[in-house]
């Protein structure tokens, strides 16, 4: 029995990070479950110290090297036809629903980028209707919480995407989402809970969107939606977040047993993991004891695609807190080297600091830098990179563990008294974020809470929002090879 690092047990009462599961990564888990039906994509590449591919499946409580029960999966990455057996989807489809928790993103981002074409503003368009039906059936089959099929308000600003999806204005985005919401209200499965996604590119749009869509969480419906998804400006503007939460409370739309979940889409800044915990705790104390905040990002997967690994966590008191990502070893000279990955990257000065994960500590440098000089890759060419496709899968698993651990450890350090500079204002007197949040949610009077929020508007402006994806130096060889192999 391999010793496990049980991250589910370490979660405590923190806001919950949901790894935005990559379809590429899930393929490696799912396909290996059906050796008689699917040609192995792993072959002999599994490091000797990793027993099976299930060791890398954090949703497998019994076999994972680091069990973690929460994830997000997007319809934009999925094969949504649940009538077909699709091995690569099995990590999601066959999870133990009693032991895991899945939020399904609806794929509104795919509409906004023109990837899901159709006349979405036309309620009779057959292509759009086919996709609506597929999304809600898929969510009902695989998820604990799904999301409304929202169309971001910025969709029409991209001319090519606007033409592809038929959204030509802010009003088109609102009207199309209204229709999608009504359809989801009637078509969802009996066990699926739905998050009402809020969009808007500024405060005016966000207020209008909220006032238009809030009815779907009200008692106007026999079975209203079950919580909130924060998109657009709502996911990154703290002033707007607090204003919206106070409004929800005082309008009876954050009620225990009905509106218990709020998800922040594409939130990657580490400081937000802490401030969302502060907000969750304050709302639980003063209004809804069941209230839970989750947030997702795809950074662990996108960093790997850029040739980067998480090396350590930075938590300087009164400084910037962050997941440290760096370009890592990618050299064909290591292909036959059986020294540990960590020993080599430190010995050869590739990283000054490298904290092992339960996956990386079981890898040699040759497990990652697989190709030798002159060796042809899977597409029959000699590439610049020493990585093959499985190198990416191994490092993605490492990065997922690092990201989860960073969120949990940062919350722990914050509780112990360390504070990131972003969450304290010491310009004149010391103002701590968690204390102000208590001032916001403790009053029962709406005007008093809003007055507190407005009083600290400059503080909110200094707390920068997160965004989808990751940044950092792009690595030419491994990144370009990833793009060749995996569109």
Q: Tell me the distance between the termini.
A: 37 Å
Number of H/I helices: 17
Largest sheet: 8 strands, parallel
Tell me the helix content.
25-40%
**Overall outline:** globular
Please provide the count of β strands.
12
CATH class call of the domain at 16-301: Alpha Beta
Overall radius of gyration? 23 Å
Regarding quaternary structure, how should these chains be classified?
Answer: single chain
Strand content: 5-15%
Q: Could you say what the CATH topology of the domain at 16-301 is called?
A: TIM Barrel
Biggest sheet, strands in spatial order?
Answer: 1-8-7-6-5-4-3-2
| Class derived from helix and strand content | alpha/beta
Mean pLDDT: 94
Ranges with pLDDT <50 over ≥5 residues? 468-487
The CATH architecture designation of the domain at 16-301 is Alpha-Beta Barrel
Order of helices and strands: EHEHEHHEHHEHEHEHEHEEHHHEEHHHH
Description of the structure:
- This protein has helices spanning 23-31, 90-93, 108-112, 126-142, 159-165, 170-187, 203-213, 238-250, 270-286, 299-305, 341-347, 365-368, 389-415, 433-441, 446-455, 457-462, 476-485; strands at residues 16-19, 70-74, 101-105, 145-147, 193-198, 227-230, 261-264, 292-297, 308-315, 321-327, 424-425, 431-432.
- The chain is an alpha/beta fold and 487 residues long.
- The strands form 3 sheets. The chain has an 8-stranded parallel β-sheet with strand order 1-8-7-6-5-4-3-2.
- Helix 4 (126-142) packs across helix 6 (170-187) and helix 9 (270-286) crosses helix 13.
- The radius of gyration is 23 Å and the shape is globular.
């Amino acid at each position: 029995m391999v010793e496990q690092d049980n991250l589910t047990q370490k979660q405590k009462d923190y806001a919950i990070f949901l790894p935005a599961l990559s379809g590429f990564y899930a393929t490696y888990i799912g396909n290996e479950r059906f050796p008689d039906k699917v040609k192995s994509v792993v072959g002999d590449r599994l490091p000797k110290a990793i027993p099976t591919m299930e060791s890398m499946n954090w949703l497998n409580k019994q076999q994972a090297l680091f069990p973690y029960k929460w994830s997000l999966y997007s319809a934009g990455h999925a094969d949504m036809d649940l009538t077909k057996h699709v091995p690569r989807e099995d990590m999601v489809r066959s999870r133990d629903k009693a032991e895991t928790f899945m939020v399904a993103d609806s794929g509104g981002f795919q509409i906004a980028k023109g990837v899901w074409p159709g006349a979405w503003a036309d309620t009779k368009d057959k292509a759009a209707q086919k996709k609506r039906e597929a999304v809600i059936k898929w969510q009902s089959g695989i998820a604990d919480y799904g999301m409304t099929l929202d169309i971001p308000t910025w969709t029409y600003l991209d001319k090519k995407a606007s033409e592809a999806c038929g959204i030509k204005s802010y009003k088109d985005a609102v009207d199309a989402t209204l229709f999608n919401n009504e359809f989801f209200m009637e078509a969802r499965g009996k066990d699926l809970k739905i998050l009402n996604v809020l969009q808007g590119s500024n405060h005016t749009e966000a207020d209008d969107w909220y006032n238009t869509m809030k009815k779907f969480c009200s008692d106007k419906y026999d079975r209203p939606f079950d919580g909130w998804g924060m998109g657009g400006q709502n996911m990154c503007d703290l002033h707007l977040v607090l204003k919206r939460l106070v409004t929800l409370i005082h309008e009876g739309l954050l009620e225990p047993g009905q509106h218990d979940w709020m998800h922040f889409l594409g939130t990657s800044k580490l400081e937000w993991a802490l401030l969302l915990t502060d907000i969750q705790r304050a709302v639980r104390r003063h209004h809804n004891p069941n209230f839970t905040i989750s947030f997702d990002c795809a950074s662990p997967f996108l960093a790997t695609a850029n040739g980067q690994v998480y090396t350590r966590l930075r938590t300087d008191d009164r400084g910037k807190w962050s997941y440290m990502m760096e370009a890592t070893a990618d050299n064909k000279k290591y292909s036959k080297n059986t020294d540990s990955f960590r020993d080599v990257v430190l010995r050869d000065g590739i990283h000054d600091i490298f904290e092992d994960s339960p996956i990386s500590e079981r890898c040699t440098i040759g497990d990652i830098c697989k190709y030798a000089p002159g060796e042809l890759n899977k597409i029959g060419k000699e590439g610049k990179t020493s990585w093959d496709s499985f190198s990416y899968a191994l490092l993605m698993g490492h990065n997922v563990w690092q990201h989860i651990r960073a969120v949990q450890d940062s919350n722990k350090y914050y509780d112990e008294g360390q504070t990131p500079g972003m969450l304290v204002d010491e310009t004149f007197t010391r103002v701590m974020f968690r204390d102000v949040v208590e001032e916001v949610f403790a009053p029962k009077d709406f005007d008093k809470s809003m007055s507190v929020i407005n009083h600290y508007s400059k503080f909110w402006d200094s707390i920068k929002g997160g965004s989808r994806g990751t940044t950092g130096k792009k690595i030419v060889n491994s990144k370009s090879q990833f793009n060749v192999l995996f569109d």
